[in-house]
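Example (one chain per record):
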Amino acid sequence: MSQEFASYIGYAASFFIVLSFILKDLTKIRIVNLVGCICFVTYGIFSGMLWPVIIPNAIICLVQVYYLIIGKKKLK
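Predicted structure:
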């Protein structure tokens, strides 16, 4: 993968993270933030295994999935 394409993934990730701060519905915030974090993990992998980018965003992905799937079941 070219470095230019990896940069576009990074820009998309930044866009989704910023967008998640604008939204008001918690479920939409978590989904948009999850997409942004997945993009950042992808960016980190294709930019030469940038572990300081990959690790925290992968953890945030797990947290978002937990609250989107498992967290909703506990509320019912």
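Caption: DSSP finds three helices and no strands in the chain.
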